[in-house]
User: Fold these one by one.
Assistant:
Number 1:
Amino acid sequence: AQSVTQPDIHITVSEGASLELRCNYSYGATPYLFWYVQSPGQGLQLLLKYFSGDTLVQGIKGFEAEFKRSQSSFNLRKPSVHWSDAAEYFCAVAPLSGGSNYKLTFGKGTLLTVNP
Amino acid sequence: GAVVSQHPSRVICKSGTSVKIECRSLDFQATTMFWYRQFPKQSLMLMATSNEGSKATYEQGVEKDKFLINHASLTLSTLTVTSAHPEDSSFYICSARDPKGTGETQYFGPGTRLLVL
């Protein structure tokens, strides 16, 4: 069965520092890959997605992610974190073939705390 | 573009009553909508997939008679929690799949906080 692993439950960084959030997936074939962000008490906002082409994907709010097929990873990065980036980040996958209406499988999330 | 709204954002009800939550896609037509439940400090748990004009598909362990889903139009899906009990208190989030392009992206509503007393 497909699964998504976010190994870091909680990460704390200082404002201005770089950030990398890890995501590994287990799937029969390369799926659609997504990163979503959730602020407290809010829904999820799409940061970026990947399904083909350039393996380095640019998203909103200065985020980027790199797909590495050999490592089954899709890590999220930001060169300089802002206090407003403090939130919960979810990695998710959906089947490339569109099976099950592209049903998403989520990781457990990584909570990002930003220190001033 | 790709905005999804939910109403209400927060609801408090007495045990035994029913609560309806609406999910609307505001600027696109969504043939497929999803309903999730999220417990504090946890990830999203998919409850059901809602396709316009047909019965919803429920995930294993989700009571379809407890959580009634209706997707009567291409922009509206509703979730009704029937005979709500305190254990139904949770954060409910809907999403809508935008069929444009490759059609794989889900856009999420802001969520509804349900508290059953």
Number 2:
Amino acid sequence: GAVVSQHPSWVICKSGTSVKIECRSLDFQATTMFWYRQFPKQSLMLMATSNEGSKATYEQGVEKDKFLINHASLTLSTLTVTSAHPEDSSFYICSASRQGSAGELFFGEGSRLTVL
Amino acid sequence: AQKITQTQPGMFVQEKEAVTLDCTYDTSDQSYGLFWYKQPSSGEMIFLIYQGSYDEQNATEGRYSLNFQKARKSANLVISASQLGDSAMYFCAMRRPPGNTPLVFGKGTRLSVIA
């Protein structure tokens, strides 16, 4: 099946630093990728839609200057958490759809961010 | 707007028994897709089953089947012959026709399989 790879799986950083999370579609081209955030024991909440070659579309309440999304190629989208604070600690997970599939989204492994 | 409701925060099932996880949805779209994902403690999202809004037959994938009742706007997941490895969070989700649209998730149900 389609594979989406996310890196890093775990990251711990100091408050005020920036962290970049990469999401790659390994065996298909993804013109659109989605970034979700999941707090402990909660559901996945859509943060933004990442479109190759254009600006990301952010959901209401998500700070676009804090969560920078870049989709520079058909196989790579990055999420940068700028000036991270402890409240940004969460599980971030990306996903992409592949043409010809049933419509399911393929998810990366997720990245667990802890801001000290 | 699309909305998914999962009313069971947690469920217990005896090993080898069947279990039904409830899901209702709300949408004004005529065409949509319904999905179930499994999330073990590792965090990965595992796709289980898909049902299109125009599919007349209920979807089945191995031990998973989706009880689709369109008039009631429900899409319950049935897991037959439960196994210990089925213990996980289960999310119901929906999506507009395949394209550049995201999945909208319910709150999830935590299933615990008891030996």
Number 3:
Amino acid sequence: AQSVTQLDSHVSVSEGTPVLLRCNYSSSYSPSLFWYVQHPNKGLQLLLKYTSAATLVKGINGFEAEFKKSETSFHLTKPSAHMSDAAEYFCVVYGANNLFFGTGTRLTVIP
Amino acid sequence: NAGVTQTPKFQVLKTGQSMTLQCAQDMNHNSMYWYRQDPGMGLRLIYYSASEGTTDKGEVPNGYNVSRLNKREFSLRLESAAPSQTSVYFCASSERTGGTYNSPLHFGNGTRLTVT
């Protein structure tokens, strides 16, 4: 069975400091993994995706994620947070002909 | 380029009333989806349509029906609304072919539904 666990429901960082949003996955085979971002009152937008090519995946707006099979993790990072990064972030795994969404991590950026 | 358009943006219903949520995409995508988003639960798939003329149940289909009217439009109907259907509903579309999700989902801005 496929599932994802987002380890933090809420993360706060100061503007200009690094961002780390954690995601662990469970998959019975080589997974396809995604990160989506949702700004207030908007739909979700794809940040990046991993589909068994390079383990370090670069996305939009300076975000990247590293696939670590040994740790079953797909953490999202950004070197320097901007105010515009404040949003909710969802880790997603594909399996059984469906996408399975994590419960989300709300990122707050403190000026 | 509008992308995925959902109407209405907000709706309040009384228990037992019916309504249809409309969704249209202008990206010529094959596949369309309806999700609901509830606090602390992420998004859950209600129904999807892999191509024009086909629909399939997702994770939480009970209490809903869908119609893929044509390639552009995919509507979600609540026949007899219940308070448990209070949620934010998102429509999405993708190129998705061959049963893969390598192409991204494009989401509408959502419909916030309250059932009293």
Number 4:
Amino acid sequence: AQRVTQPEKLLSVFKGAPVELKCNYSYSGSPELFWYVQYSRQRLQLLLRHISRESIKGFTADLNKGETSFHLKKPFAQEEDSAMYYCALKYNFNKFYFGSGTKLNVKP
Amino acid sequence: DTEVTQTPKHLVMGMTNKKSLKCEQHMGHRAMYWYKQKAKKPPELMFVYSYEKLSINESVPSRFSPECPNSSLLNLHLHALQPEDSALYLCASSPPTVNTGELFFGEGSRLTVL
């Protein structure tokens, strides 16, 4: 069965510190993985998708099939990065399964 | 128009009421979704429509009845709900791209069942 695990419910870092939000997945097929973000009082929106291998707002995420991980990283956190982050797995063409989420709090 | 619009934003209903949630998008997306999100929990998939046909029903109770009248509209009809159905109901759509389709979410309809 497919599963997405985000082990940290809350991650607090100081501004300028590196940040890594962990995501591990379990899926027998070829995974498509995404990071979604929800800022306060805003809708859930896409941050990154593994297939694009892009950097958005300084965040990157690399799919590691050996470790079945898709961790989200940023070298220098900013206060405006404070938000709820969800790792999501797309499978069976149209199904998206969301991890439990990690709340990132960047302190000044 | 690059947004998914949901109405109403808030809805309070009794257990015997019948109400509907509405979702609209004009981005040409051919897949539309209903998700349910309880407080401090991730979104949980309820239904998926693909090209106006119901393609996925995640064993949702029949008191929730989805409808897709056309490619831009998605409704969720509610009848005889329970207090535990109180949640944020999110609509999403995705473009007709097999490999890179992402979800575009609405702001949600917050439902309270008394």
